[in-house]
Structures are given as structure tokens and as C-alpha cells.
Amino acid sequence: DFLCISLVNGFIQLRYNLGDKTVILQTFQKVHANGNTWHSLRAGRTGNEGYLDLDGINITQKASPGMNALDTHTDFFVGGVSSLSLVNSMAVENEPTSFTGCIREIVINNRELKLTVTDAKGGANIGDCDGTVCGYTVCKNNGTCQVENSGFSCSCPQEWTGSTCERSIHCSQNRCGSQALCIPQPTSFSYICVCALGWSGKYCDSKIKFYIAKFIGNSYIKYTDPYYGKRDLQYSRISLNFTTNQTEGLIVWMGKGEDEDNDFLAIGLANGTLKVVINLGERISVPLIHSKYSTCCDERWHFVTVVQNQTCIKVYLDEELILFEDIDPRRKYTALNYGGICYFGGFGIGRKVNIVTTGLFQKEFIGKIKDVVLFQDSKKIQLMKAEGYNVYNGN
């Protein structure tokens, strides 16, 4: 499998192969070869339907029967590859050559790649395209960069300050306590403090303990499983108690939550009913939805357990088996490679649930969670010792 974007005789070309045939899309217009014009390019695919957009002019390749998952498991290359012999002959029109020019602002599945020496895995013959210490987006929040003898300086918009315009003026004198986040409130010329796990109060200066986690919105807990390396990932299990009065919300996401290649098991609410989604590989997310309505959003405690036995999934709600399905009788993928990461309630400040889950769940969880047990462990996990924000004592 491959997906390749290349420049061919002045046109942009997208080629991808999901295992059965190569799809080719090419722009109608050529790119300017004067070296002074930046072009905006969007390209990708949903299933086997591709799209290519150059400077707002879009081309779409309609889906046809066939494979719909891109299974590469290789490094991601920009501008060239370590050896041109690695390039699949169907991925380019002519002999493969490296790109000459400038590339910036690469966003893959809503995450921007940092094209820096420290963030890239490797590379060669790459320089600063701007040619100055200002580079690209050195000054944040629409600040203007000026080259100085000693380096650079940023001229900041009215509401931003700091050497790179990284701090809001509303947070420059904030009183937020230990590990808290200051969130500017420009309309009221003020700020609010978002408390780290274990802290509460207006300024997050009161230490708290809890066994019941209360999620108030824009909340999350990220738990790292210390026993992940010893788990038998073909036989996963998670159980917990929750209560809420909301009809939508992500309760738990077992998985890295970084890109569509990551396996996951998710439990949440959709339209007032329990929804479980599992992905064991090949980006095929299988949703299992409980048919009874208004059983989960009545502010009473509910006990949910999800058991994965290879590709067989059982879901229990309040001790009753409500869902039982074999999501792949062919047993192509049987392990839940979730990376030892569990998110509760959401994914982090500023990360939208509907974007990270690609629409599987619409909102962060508002309610309470307690008594979380992974696999067949004898002890409940200690949510308070994890990482997170905006979570309080639900007792």
C-alpha cells in the first residue's frame, strides 16, 4: 500500500494504492515555477474515495468497490526518501526524483508536523527556506518578526506579549496555582484557571483527593497502564461505574488517540444510549449500539463492562449482557494494541472529541466515573494519580 503526492510536469498528482489498484488524481492547473508563490495543497482519501485540492480548486475521485484501508506501517517521508529505490514504481509517473523547493505547515489528520531537527526522525540536505532567523511562525498569534543583530524580535498584537507573543496579556499577571493552566477571557479582560488533577479552587490552590472523578466539561484524565507490556492483548477487559444527565459524551477511550492507525476500544453515549466502538486494525471501526433509550442519562449509577475475546465483543450494562458480536469472523486482527493509554472524559485541553474520534462521539463527558478496573486486575486504578485537568471530587 502507498499514498504519494508529487509534482509532475508542473501539475500536482496524488496516487494511492490500498492493495488492489492504483488511483491517480491530477490538478487542472499548474503550479507557479517562479519560486515566490506559496501554494495551498489538500489531499487525501476517505475509504478509497480520494480528493485533491490546489489553491481551492478541488478534484474528487468517486469511490468504487474495493479495499478501503491504507496499511503501510512505514516511516513518513517529506520531499524525498532515503533511497529512491524504495519508491514503488506505481507511485510516480516517471523516474522518482527528490523535491526541490520549500514546504511548510504540513498537517496530517489534524496534527501539524514540526519540521525541525529535534522533531523529525531523520533527514538530509534540508535548510531554512526563509533564509533568516525569523523562519516560519517564529512569532505566535499573528506577531510580526524582525531580524535583529542579536537574532530576532517579535512585534506582538495588542492582546499578546512575551518574546514570541506566546502569552496573553490577560494571563501575564495570573494567580493560577501549581501546574494550572491560565485561559484568557478577552471579552471580560480577565482569565480563568484550569486546575491540574488533585487541585481545585478559583486559583487551583486547594489540594484535593478523590475516589469518584467528577467531569464538568473540558475535562480529561490520561492514564498510563504500568502493566501494558505484560497484558495479553487478545483478551482485554474494562469495567467502570458512571452517572450522567447528558445524552452525549465520551466516557473512556482505550488507545493512543493520536491518529487513525491506532487501535482503540471506546465507551460513550450517543443519542442517549450506550455506544461501544472497537478498532483492532486496518482502521475499521465497528460501532455497537445498545437499542434501549434513556437508560444511561438518568443521573443514576450504571455499571458497564466490555470484554474483548479476540474478535468477540461482549458488553454488559448493570450486570445484563446487552451486546454480543463477533466483529470479524475471519480473525484477521485479534489484539487490542492500545499502547497502554486510557483517556477518560476527553483527550486534553483544546482537543475536540468529535475531531479526535472522527465523529464517533460528539462531546466530552459531563458526569462522574468511579471503580475503573482493567483486565482481570484485583485493584481499581487510581485515577487521581494520572494526568489530567478540570476533574474534581465527585463525592
Q: Which short descriptors sum up this protein?
A:
3 domains; Laminin; three-stranded antiparallel beta sheet; mainly beta; 1 helix; twelve-stranded antiparallel beta sheet; 395 residues
Question: Kindly state the mean pLDDT as a whole number?
Answer: 87
And the CATH topology of the largest domain? Answer: Jelly Rolls
Number of beta strands: 28
CATH A-level architecture of the largest domain:
Sandwich
> What class do helices, strands and sheet pairing give?
mainly beta
Sheet with the most strands, sense and barrel status: 12 strands, antiparallel
- The best one-word shape is globular
Percent of residues in beta strands: 35-45%
* Tally of alpha and pi helices: 1
Question: Would you list the SSEs in sequence order as H and E?
Answer: EEEEEEEEEEEEEEEEEEEEEEEEEEHEE
Helix content: under 10%
CATH first level of the largest domain: which class? Mainly Beta
Poorly predicted regions are none
Cα-atom radius of gyration = 24 Å
Instruction: Give the oligomeric state of the chains in this entry, treating copies of one chain as homo and distinct chains as hetero.
Output: single chain
- Count of individual domains: 3
Distance, first to last CA: 51 Å
